[in-house]
Inverse folding.
């Protein structure tokens, strides 16, 4: 046994790794102004572009739902190796420039300290609050992942059945209330016609006839290659519970949005959120926190959110002491 432990310790000295340490106020001592810096950039952006809220919510969900919140969605593809950005569901994800601005600011204040994955989580929370949602507590201490593989992107499709969707959420430790609450993030933002064009080829009994005609006209516009439609027909920039009221009236844009309104597995939750806006906001916040608990076991603090850090040779250690600036852990 002693020999095995010695082997593990040797591995640590040869290949130091960082372990995620998720908690409130992780940067209190190492970068006390981190969250203020993030909030400042988000507020400035939101003042001129309220669509940044759904953009960040989508980025956060797409990043975290694939096993971990590790900022793998931020990695740029190269001619030699595609990243998660190249996966079909991620082609319309945006907001990367905001993350770049935040990263540049926090690097100037606290070099190699604040992870890109934490930036996404905090920025999303701030954007939701600015749009009218809760200013919920975000745990920090995430690490940035060491891979970004488009073949591993597995997100619920817009035409998925309710049962299949709930099973996918369950696989990510999220229950049916979490699932319906997170779909409520569609109370802000738009969807490209390509995501629901299958519902427009012929009249869809699950869709309000007037909405059907409106969408059909809008999506056939020749002025835009892939036009968009508001996911919430009434208050598309306010983080409220109008989404649930809209789908109750068969005005859901995406098929999965409409299905949860009348499926026996979710109709009760939809009705509850439609009647209780505060309960929806709290449930959404709870689900975002739970989703954020999916973290990479090991990783790094990227200096540039779009590329992995270049590997550096490990300096010779003196007296078998581990560098105190590392966050070492056993790798098995």
């Amino acid at each position: 046994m002693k020999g095995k432990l010695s082997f593990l310790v040797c591995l640590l000295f040869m290949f130091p790794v960082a372990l995620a340490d998720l908690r409130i106020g992780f940067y209190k001592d190492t970068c006390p102004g981190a969250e203020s810096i993030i909030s400042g950039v988000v507020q400035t952006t939101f003042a001129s572009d309220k669509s940044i809220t759904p953009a960040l919510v989508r980025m956060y969900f797409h990043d975290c739902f694939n096993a971990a919140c590790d900022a793998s969605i931020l990695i740029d593809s190269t001619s030699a190796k595609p990243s998660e950005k190249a996966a079909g569901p991620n082609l319309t994800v945006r907001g990367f420039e905001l993350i770049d601005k935040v990263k540049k600011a926090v690097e100037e204040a606290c070099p190699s300290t604040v992870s890109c994955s934490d930036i996404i989580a905090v920025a999303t929370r701030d954007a939701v609050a600015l749009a009218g949602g809760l200013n919920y507590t975000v745990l920090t201490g995430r690490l940035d992942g060491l891979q970004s593989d488009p073949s591993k992107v597995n997100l619920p499709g817009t035409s998925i059945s309710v049962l299949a969707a709930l099973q996918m959420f369950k696989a990510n430790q999220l229950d049916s209330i979490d699932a319906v609450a997170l779909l409520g993030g569609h109370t802000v933002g738009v969807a490209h016609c390509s995501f629901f064009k299958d519902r427009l080829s012929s009249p869809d009994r699950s869709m309000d006839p007037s909405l059907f005609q409106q969408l059909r006209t809008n999506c056939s516009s020749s002025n835009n290659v892939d036009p968009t439609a508001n996911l919430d027909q009434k208050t598309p920039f306010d983080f409220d519970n109008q989404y649930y009221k809209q789908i109750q009236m068969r005005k859901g844009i995406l098929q999965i949005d409409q299905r949860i309104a009348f499926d026996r597995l979710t109709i009760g939750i939809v009705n509850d959120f439609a009647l209780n806006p505060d309960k929806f906001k709290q449930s959404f916040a709870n689900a975002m926190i739970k989703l954020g608990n999916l973290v990479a076991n090991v990783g790094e603090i990227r200096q540039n959110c779009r590329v992995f850090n270049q590997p550096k040779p490990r300096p010779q250690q003196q007296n078998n002491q581990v560098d105190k600036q590392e966050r070492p852990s056993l790798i098995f």
